[in-house]
């Protein structure tokens, strides 16, 4: 281990290199860096073990670091400099990427199942609460309304606080609201809890696409997004499939068990998320990397690019929350895609009311059999998977550019 005097000399040399690098005179003294790098590697062994980024994060060569000047102070902009940078999620092996992808697909599956789970039990619940079936059907409508409002803030929060933290907090709140719903003895608090459950449940569904984009390069996202679309549009039909059979079960004597099953499912998913879900949001990871470099070098001028603005958290959240409205207003592509997805979801959830009218009242099927027919929607969504290899093969063959168009 190096003595205090040698450590001080190392930091002094690094400061000199910093000064020369920022003023365009690095080449004359670039030979000093290997020794400084080696000494900082020795000095920082204990710090690296405590890094949130894991092992292997050390100061990169200065020629790979961009510099900037803020408030008359030269700073080092931290980025992914090494193609083998361990914390960079783009460098993860495919097995690890698919593990993280399956976790977010599980989150989307949970929300998709919980949204319409009360459709088959609306008549029984309305009878228990002494209200009309139309009033009880608000439990599904308000859950969807909550998802709509929650989506406006879930995405921006994930861009400020990171994906994993947003998932954890949102899913914990969702578990609480889902648990409060079956214990409610009056319709009013029950509807409120369903709305809050949808508001919290928006985060896993909205941010899953962002996590997939974090993990995969543009040319490799075909299959992850294909599976995400299948889960997003196919799983809402699965919730009513099993909840329709619960009231007739010889062991589960109340319709409330449909909600308790959702609570148990969400609890299991929450534990899995808390245990295995990694952080994938690149700006947050770069902030951790910059903080780690500041700790192991004693040089306070390492910072991530998005930290250069020095905007306070409340202001960053306001800007992030305003961005969806600005983009929806100015971008025609987003308008058309939003209208199309809204239409698809309207048709999808209309089936939950239309199927009982057609198959129960007209053909005399039982409630369980009627809602089991909704599984055809899931099968149809899964059948679209055959298009994935075709699209992927053509996109690779034509070498489609992944650079965004100029604006």
Automatic annotation (TrEMBL):
Residues 100-407 form the Major facilitator superfamily (MFS) profile domain. It is a multi-pass membrane protein. The chain crosses the membrane at residues 98-122, 134-153, 160-180, 192-213, 225-245, 257-276, 332-351, 371-391. InterPro entries: MFS (IPR011701), MFS_dom (IPR020846), MFS_trans_sf (IPR036259). One of its GO terms (cellular component) is plasma membrane. Keywords: Glycoprotein, Membrane, Transmembrane, Transmembrane helix. Gene3D superfamilies: MFS general substrate transporter like domains. One of its GO terms (molecular function) is transmembrane transporter activity. It is found in: Membrane. This is Major facilitator superfamily (MFS) profile domain-containing protein.
């Amino acid at each position: 281990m190096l003595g205090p005097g040698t450590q001080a000399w190392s930091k002094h040399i690094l400061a000199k290199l910093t000064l020369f690098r920022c003023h365009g005179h690095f080449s004359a003294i670039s030979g000093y860096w290997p020794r400084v790098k080696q000494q900082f590697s020795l000095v920082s062994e204990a710090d690296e073990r405590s890094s949130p980024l894991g092992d292997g994060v050390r100061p990169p060569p200065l020629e790979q670091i961009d510099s900037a000047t803020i408030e008359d102070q030269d700073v080092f902009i931290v980025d992914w400099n090494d193609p083998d940078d361990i914390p960079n999620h783009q460098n993860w092996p495919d097995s690890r990427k698919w593990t993280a992808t399956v976790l977010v697909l599980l989150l989307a599956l949970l929300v998709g199942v919980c949204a319409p789970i009360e459709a088959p039990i609306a008549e029984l619940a309305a009878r228990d609460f002494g209200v009309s079936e139309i009033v009880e059907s608000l439990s599904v409508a308000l859950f969807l309304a909550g998802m709509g409002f929650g989506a406006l803030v879930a995405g921006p929060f994930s861009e400020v606080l990171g994906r994993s933290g947003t998932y954890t907090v949102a899913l914990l709140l969702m578990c609480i609201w889902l648990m409060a719903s079956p214990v409610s003895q009056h319709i009013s608090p029950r509807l409120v809890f369903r709305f809050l459950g949808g508001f919290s449940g928006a985060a896993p569904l909205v941010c899953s696409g962002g996590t997939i984009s974090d993990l995969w390069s543009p040319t490799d996202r075909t299959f992850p997004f294909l599976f995400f679309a299948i889960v997003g549009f196919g799983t809402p039909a699965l919730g009513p499939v099993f909840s329709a059979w619960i009231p007739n079960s010889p062991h589960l004597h109340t319709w409330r068990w449909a909600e308790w099953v959702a609570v148990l499912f969400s609890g299991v998913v929450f534990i899995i998320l808390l245990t295995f879900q990694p952080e994938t949001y690149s700006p947050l990871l770069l902030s951790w990397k910059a903080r780690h470099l500041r700790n192991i070098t004693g040089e306070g001028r390492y910072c991530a690019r998005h930290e250069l603005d020095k905007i306070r958290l409340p202001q960053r959240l306001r800007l992030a929350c305003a961005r969806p409205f600005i983009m929806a207003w100015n971008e025609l592509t987003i308008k058309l895609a939003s209208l199309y997805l809204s239409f698809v979801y309207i048709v999808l959830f209309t089936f939950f009311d239309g199927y009982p009218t057609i198959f129960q009242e007209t053909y005399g099927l039982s409630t369980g059999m009627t809602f089991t027919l909704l599984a055809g929607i899931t099968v149809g969504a899964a059948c679209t998977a055959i298009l994935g290899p075709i699209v992927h093969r053509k996109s690779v063959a034509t070498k489609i550019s992944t650079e965004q168009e100029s604006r």
